[in-house]
Amino acid sequence: MTDSVRRGTRIAHIGIAVRALDELLPFYRDVLGMPDVPLDDADGASIAGLAAGESLVELLEAKSEDTPIGKYVAKRGPGIHHVCFAVDDLDGTLQKCRDAGLRLIDETPRIGAEGKRIAFLHPSATGGVLVELSEY
Protein backbone atom coordinates (compact mmCIF):
# COMPACT_ATOMS: atom_id res chain seq x y z
CA MET A 1 0.00 0.00 0.00
CA THR A 2 1.45 3.38 -0.94
CA ASP A 3 1.71 6.22 1.52
CA SER A 4 -0.85 8.25 -0.44
CA VAL A 5 -3.61 5.72 0.34
CA ARG A 6 -2.65 4.83 3.91
CA ARG A 7 -5.53 5.21 6.30
CA GLY A 8 -3.66 4.76 9.54
CA THR A 9 -4.52 2.55 12.46
CA ARG A 10 -8.00 2.97 13.90
CA ILE A 11 -10.29 1.16 16.29
CA ALA A 12 -12.28 -1.28 14.17
CA HIS A 13 -14.35 -2.78 16.98
CA ILE A 14 -14.54 -3.64 20.64
CA GLY A 15 -15.56 -7.18 21.52
CA ILE A 16 -17.68 -7.56 24.64
CA ALA A 17 -18.22 -11.01 26.12
CA VAL A 18 -21.80 -11.46 27.36
CA ARG A 19 -23.73 -14.25 29.05
CA ALA A 20 -26.79 -13.75 26.81
CA LEU A 21 -27.20 -11.52 23.77
CA ASP A 22 -30.92 -10.99 24.39
CA GLU A 23 -30.18 -9.48 27.81
CA LEU A 24 -27.86 -6.74 26.48
CA LEU A 25 -29.03 -6.04 22.93
CA PRO A 26 -31.92 -3.82 24.12
CA PHE A 27 -29.49 -1.53 25.97
CA TYR A 28 -27.17 -1.00 23.01
CA ARG A 29 -29.84 -1.00 20.30
CA ASP A 30 -32.85 0.61 21.99
CA VAL A 31 -31.39 2.81 24.74
CA LEU A 32 -28.19 3.94 22.98
CA GLY A 33 -29.73 3.80 19.50
CA MET A 34 -26.92 1.79 17.92
CA PRO A 35 -28.04 0.19 14.64
CA ASP A 36 -27.55 -3.53 13.96
CA VAL A 37 -24.71 -4.60 11.69
CA PRO A 38 -25.05 -8.18 10.43
CA LEU A 39 -22.00 -10.30 11.32
CA ASP A 40 -21.22 -13.97 10.94
CA ASP A 41 -20.71 -16.07 14.02
CA ALA A 42 -17.08 -17.07 14.60
CA ASP A 43 -14.84 -19.01 16.98
CA GLY A 44 -17.79 -20.68 18.67
CA ALA A 45 -19.56 -17.42 19.47
CA SER A 46 -22.85 -15.91 18.38
CA ILE A 47 -22.02 -12.33 17.46
CA ALA A 48 -24.32 -9.31 17.39
CA GLY A 49 -22.77 -6.30 15.67
CA LEU A 50 -23.75 -2.73 16.45
CA ALA A 51 -22.53 0.45 14.77
CA ALA A 52 -20.78 2.99 16.98
CA GLY A 53 -19.90 5.74 14.54
CA GLU A 54 -17.17 4.41 12.27
CA SER A 55 -16.42 1.55 14.69
CA LEU A 56 -18.35 -1.51 15.78
CA VAL A 57 -19.29 -3.08 19.05
CA GLU A 58 -19.40 -6.87 18.90
CA LEU A 59 -21.44 -8.60 21.57
CA LEU A 60 -20.06 -12.13 21.89
CA GLU A 61 -22.12 -14.96 23.38
CA ALA A 62 -20.48 -18.38 23.71
CA LYS A 63 -22.23 -21.26 21.97
CA SER A 64 -20.65 -23.62 24.50
CA GLU A 65 -18.44 -23.44 27.57
CA ASP A 66 -15.36 -24.86 25.80
CA THR A 67 -15.10 -21.98 23.30
CA PRO A 68 -12.77 -18.98 23.78
CA ILE A 69 -15.69 -16.76 24.90
CA GLY A 70 -17.16 -19.52 27.08
CA LYS A 71 -13.83 -19.97 28.85
CA TYR A 72 -13.39 -16.20 29.19
CA VAL A 73 -16.83 -15.68 30.79
CA ALA A 74 -16.34 -18.67 33.11
CA LYS A 75 -12.99 -17.32 34.32
CA ARG A 76 -13.52 -13.54 34.31
CA GLY A 77 -17.23 -12.96 33.85
CA PRO A 78 -18.78 -10.77 31.16
CA GLY A 79 -16.96 -7.65 30.02
CA ILE A 80 -14.60 -6.26 27.43
CA HIS A 81 -12.93 -9.21 25.75
CA HIS A 82 -10.73 -7.51 23.13
CA VAL A 83 -10.01 -4.38 21.14
CA CYS A 84 -9.56 -4.68 17.39
CA PHE A 85 -7.38 -2.25 15.46
CA ALA A 86 -7.64 -1.99 11.68
CA VAL A 87 -4.20 -1.56 10.15
CA ASP A 88 -3.02 -0.65 6.66
CA ASP A 89 -0.82 -3.74 6.25
CA LEU A 90 -1.71 -6.73 8.43
CA ASP A 91 1.19 -8.90 7.27
CA GLY A 92 3.66 -6.05 7.73
CA THR A 93 2.28 -5.22 11.17
CA LEU A 94 2.53 -8.86 12.25
CA GLN A 95 6.14 -8.88 11.09
CA LYS A 96 6.83 -5.73 13.12
CA CYS A 97 5.30 -7.52 16.13
CA ARG A 98 7.57 -10.52 15.55
CA ASP A 99 10.60 -8.25 15.12
CA ALA A 100 9.73 -6.53 18.41
CA GLY A 101 9.55 -9.93 20.15
CA LEU A 102 5.82 -9.72 20.84
CA ARG A 103 3.92 -12.93 21.50
CA LEU A 104 1.33 -13.74 18.84
CA ILE A 105 -1.72 -15.95 19.22
CA ASP A 106 -2.16 -16.14 15.43
CA GLU A 107 1.14 -16.52 13.60
CA THR A 108 -0.69 -16.12 10.29
CA PRO A 109 -3.89 -14.20 9.55
CA ARG A 110 -7.24 -15.98 9.40
CA ILE A 111 -10.75 -14.90 8.44
CA GLY A 112 -12.80 -13.20 11.17
CA ALA A 113 -16.47 -12.42 11.76
CA GLU A 114 -16.51 -9.51 9.29
CA GLY A 115 -14.96 -11.66 6.56
CA LYS A 116 -11.67 -9.77 6.91
CA ARG A 117 -8.22 -11.17 7.61
CA ILE A 118 -7.42 -10.95 11.33
CA ALA A 119 -4.79 -12.01 13.84
CA PHE A 120 -4.69 -11.83 17.64
CA LEU A 121 -1.77 -10.72 19.83
CA HIS A 122 -1.30 -12.29 23.25
CA PRO A 123 -2.32 -10.06 26.19
CA SER A 124 1.10 -10.59 27.78
CA ALA A 125 2.56 -8.56 24.91
CA THR A 126 0.05 -5.71 25.07
CA GLY A 127 -0.30 -4.68 28.69
CA GLY A 128 -2.93 -7.28 29.57
CA VAL A 129 -5.29 -6.42 26.70
CA LEU A 130 -6.23 -9.00 24.08
CA VAL A 131 -5.59 -7.15 20.82
CA GLU A 132 -6.97 -8.19 17.46
CA LEU A 133 -5.46 -6.77 14.28
CA SER A 134 -7.60 -6.55 11.16
CA GLU A 135 -7.23 -5.40 7.60
CA TYR A 136 -9.41 -2.50 6.47
Give an overview of the whole structure:
By secondary structure, the chain is of the alpha+beta class. It has one domain: 2,3-Dihydroxybiphenyl 1,2-Dioxygenase, domain 1 (Roll), CATH 3.10.180.10. Helix content is 22%, strand content 35%. Strands 2-3-4-1-5-8-7-6 form an 8-stranded mixed sheet. Strand 3 (45-52) and strand 4 form a beta hairpin. The longest helix is centred in the first third of the chain and has 11 residues, at 21-31. The N and C termini lie close together (12 Å). Residues 10-136 form the VOC domain. Belongs to the methylmalonyl-CoA epimerase family. One of its GO terms (molecular function) is methylmalonyl-CoA epimerase activity. Keywords: Metal-binding. This is VOC domain-containing protein.
Write down the overall geometry.
globular
Helix content class: 10-25%
Kindly report the spatial arrangement of strands forming the biggest sheet. 2-3-4-1-5-8-7-6
How many distinct folded domains? 1
Q: What proportion strand?
A: 35-45%
Question: Can you count the beta strands?
Answer: 8
Class by SSE composition: alpha+beta
CATH H-level name... which superfamily? 2,3-Dihydroxybiphenyl 1,2-Dioxygenase, domain 1
| Head-to-tail CA distance between termini | 12 Å
What CATH calls the topology is 2,3-Dihydroxybiphenyl 1,2-Dioxygenase, domain 1
Rg estimate, integer Å: 15 Å
Number of contiguous helices: 3
- CATH arch. level architecture: Roll
